[in-house]
Amino acid sequence: MVKVAVLVDAENLPASHAKAIILEATRLGTVVERRLYGDFLRGNLKQWLEIAASQAFEICHVQSFGGKNSADIAIAVDAIELLCSSDIDLFCLATSDSDFAALAIRIRCRGKTVVAVGEGKALPVFREAVDRFVTLGLVTSPQEKKPAPPVEPKAIDTLPALLKAALNTIGGAGGWIDVGRLSQALKAVEPGFQPRAFGSATLSKLLGRCDAVELRTGADGCRQLRLKPVRKVIAA
Question: Closest Cα to residue 62, out of 41, 79, 34?
């Protein structure tokens, strides 16, 4: 079971997107955290307050005191706390704010998956920092979406060659590399790369199934991997 935490930047997105955000999150796994952040003393967030109960959001009020980044800081702090103290597999960041790019990279560095749900105005720096970016307005309801034909997962034995090609692009074929950097390299080598294509919900779980790699936790807490050395067979 993939455990999902949904963190919504209410100051960045209108409440009209609430149902679409939760719909996308439930497609990713089992939603165990639904948190809504903002300065709810502001009149323009009234709609979020009205819809919060119907979508089971926990309201996280953050008073701004004249600044505009108070909610952003609260989201970042809570995300890191969940990263370090819970078994969340996937973080769903509902925002179009590119300031969250660094947070997404840090979460992925720890071997977790980050999916962003936002509007088309999101900058490329944020889109590239996450595992997948879902554009609101393009999310369809279960009734509107036609069922896709079943797809057989790719064979796991095709993964080592893809990993080696990705590691070569960042000069890491022979040493330890952060999983977050590998994720970006895989996208560069094979655009549209998704662990689900191999039958795994997250990249960390996929790597755990691959006998060709070794995994460890680095000194900074980030998940790291390297390809296992190929043993040469000496002819008798």
Answer: 41
pLDDT tens for 89-130 read 999 999 999 999 999 999 998 889 999 999 999 999 999 899
More confident residue, 199 or 33: 33
Alpha helix locations (H) across 29-139? 46-52, 70-85, 101-109, 124-129
- State how far Cα 209 lies from the chain centre: 20
How many Å apart are CA 78 and CA 69, to the nearest integer? 14
Q: What is the per-residue pLDDT across 28-48, written as a single tens digit (0 to 9) for each?
A: 999 999 999 999 988 889 999
Q: Residue 225 has which token pair?
A: 């991997």
For the chain, list the domains and their CATH numbers.
3-135 (3.40.50.1010), 156-227 (3.30.420.610)
Phi-psi category of 65—alpha, beta or left, where left has phi over 0 and alpha has psi -120 to 50? left
Helical segments of the chain, H only: 18-28, 46-52, 70-85, 101-109, 124-129, 159-169, 179-189, 203-209
Nearest to 94 by CA among 22, 152, 167, 190: 22
Q: When comparing pLDDT for 120 and 157, which is higher?
A: 120
Nearest partner of 193 among 228, 158, 221, 226, judged by Cα: 158
Mean pLDDT of 14-24: 94
Phi, psi of 135 (to 5 degrees): -85, 120
Which pTM does this prediction carry?
0.70
